[in-house]
């Protein structure tokens, strides 16, 4: 039995975006991406703390939870996910380092575990903002960062978050690259998967 979550989650929201037509051209199959966002209490809001380990542990918890939900929303096997990304926004009583503590030291490993792979760095963004702030989640191919067709992003927002003492945390996944990608570079069928770049 799993231990209870450390994160105090106020709400979880999942977004699914499906593109069927781009520039008048049919996209078949449609390109699909999903993001799951958690709104959590910031345990360090309004105070400076040298040790941010609680947020690092929360990041580890959310990595698995958010990835499982985003993959389920796409309705595909986790191993079929092609791109991923992550983002966080802290409310006004937080600092950017709080977002970094959630996103960087521990969140990535459970994301990769859920997906069964993921050699490339997980693109990320962080910011401070008020309720309704837009989260721009950068996306990149999970196994090879140089696959240009998968350089992308997904925009999400929650109208009542983050409150001053909250953090909004998101993980996004896709089943493909951009629709009608044609700027050259490494293609997904050329991936070697050895170094996370190619």
Descriptive notes:
- With 198 residues, this protein is an alpha+beta fold.
- It has one domain: 60s Ribosomal Protein L30, Chain: A (2-Layer Sandwich).
- The chain contains three helices and seven strands.
- Strands 1, 2, 3, 4, 5, 6 and 7 form a seven-stranded mixed beta sheet that branches.
- A hairpin with a 2-residue loop joins β1 and β2.
- α1 packs across α2.
- The longest helix is centred in the first third of the chain and has 22 residues.
User: CATH superfamily, please?
Assistant: BB2672
Give, in order, the helices and strands.
EEHEHHEEEE
The CATH topology name reads 60s Ribosomal Protein L30, Chain: A
Output the structural class: alpha+beta
Assign an overall shape. Answer: globular
Low-confidence stretches: none
CATH class: Alpha Beta
| Number of separate structural domains | 1
**What is the level-2 CATH architecture name?**
2-Layer Sandwich
Q: Provide the residue-averaged pLDDT.
A: 94
Radius of gyration: 17 Å
- The percent of residues in helical segments reads 10-25%
Largest sheet data: 7 strands, mixed
SS field, number of helical segments: 3
N-end to C-end Cα span: 39 Å
Strand content: 25-35%
Structure summary, number of beta strands: 7
